[in-house]
What does this fold into?
Amino acid sequence: MDSWAGGRSYESYVGRWSRLVAREFLAWLDRPADAGWLDVGCGTGALTEMVLARCAPSEVVGVDPSPSFVEYAAACVADPRASFQVGTAQALPVDDAAFDVVVSGLVLNFVPDRSAALREMRRAARPGGTVAAYVWDYPDEMQLMTHFWDTAAGLAPAAAALHEGARFPFCRPEALHALFTDAGLENVEAQPVVVPTVFGDFDDYWVPFLSGTGPAPAYAMSLGDGDRAHLREALRARLPTEDDGSIHLTARAWALSGTAA
Ligand SMILES: C[S@@+](CC[C@H](N)C(=O)[O-])C[C@H]1O[C@@H](n2cnc3c(N)ncnc32)[C@H](O)[C@@H]1O
It folds into this structure.
């Protein structure tokens, strides 16, 4: 079970990067104004906020199973068009065909039954509406996490089983395309979204792992002080560091969209 709680911690670990992906994703999706949007697995509201800022929606409903994330999003997103509810992707607490656009950012890999989630997303979309999602390319190009897990597994082989690249092999365009078409979605398209993840110094990279929010931070905090210090120093030695101390990595997400029949 992955650990998702603590809005501020999430923001420093992934939220700051997920906002960059959300912006590119919405530009690619290019949906018209005045649409009703559903954000599945809204977390702290990164994608919801970007929809509000960029897509002129009539409403955005965010759903997430983490009560603390829902509370954080509701407190931070002060827009009358936005509302948030606790619920899961496999059993969305919304009516059939209630939304023009149903989206989900960086969530599908954490959902136990992804096929059920896609069917639910299709159910929530009106006929002709859009269902779209993106996930990190964990197997190949989510460098900040790959460095973490490769280093952790080098120090403690048991960590290899927790490596998100190994846990989420389906986060590739072919498997994601099949997931969408198997759910009955039509006109399915895939698009890579690459964003820079630049850290001012090593602490800017490392400290978010001490929050415990998300799989890699949860692993870091499961270690004793000595093992965590070994991991920290091995990462410090491994990461490509510029003369000014900054660390320039990139992250790729795969975005998919389809049309509800
Ligand atoms: C990496 S965060 C992404 C949050 C947000 N969408 C973003 O882009 O920043 C993953 C989110 O998936 C949510 N989640 C985990 N299992 C879920 C499920 N079964 N249904 C819906 N959301 C789920 C977590 O609570 C967490 O908010």
